[in-house]
What does this fold into?
Amino acid sequence: MVPVEVYEELVARRRNAVRQGNASLRAEGYEPPAAIELIVDEWVHGRITAQEMEDRIADHYNLPPR
It folds into this structure.
């Protein structure tokens, strides 16, 4: 178990990374799909690992596993 302050800092950093990624998508004229945002939100809140997030996104797009 991690202290609340540490958890909140991790969530804030992940949320910031997602914001930056979404801003980059939007600058290119794309909108992040709602299904992908749900998966990413699971990662932001630490409910899944980065690898699980990548796997779920790959599954969503029917991409082969890495």
In short: The mean pLDDT is 96. The chain has three helices and no strands. The CA atoms of residues 20 and 58 lie 21 Å apart.
